[in-house]
Amino acid sequence: VVAVNAPYVAGFLAFREVPFLLETVQRLETQKLGLKPQVLLVDGNGILHHRGFGIACHLGVLTGLPCIGVAKNLLQVEGLANDELHKKQVSVEIKLINKCE
Description:
By secondary structure, the protein is mainly α. The protein has three helices and two strands. The longest helix is centred in the N-terminal third of the chain and has 19 residues. α1 packs parallel to α2.
């Protein structure tokens, strides 16, 4: 459990949570000798952040590790829309992936 003192401000999650995530990665590397992640999955946006640089990007720069943002919601990004067409395109992609397996 981590005590967070900074308030939540939409669009600025990295400034609130990256210090704790960075500390966790560093502890993993120092306390568990030889155990270093090859990639990090982050609960938040990366390049699909509306400013193009979300929490996954921040953590990636600070750790030197590839980070993938796995956000729960699609933010407003130019060229992407969370509408029926988008849902249909995602459905088609999932079906193609399932056929390949």
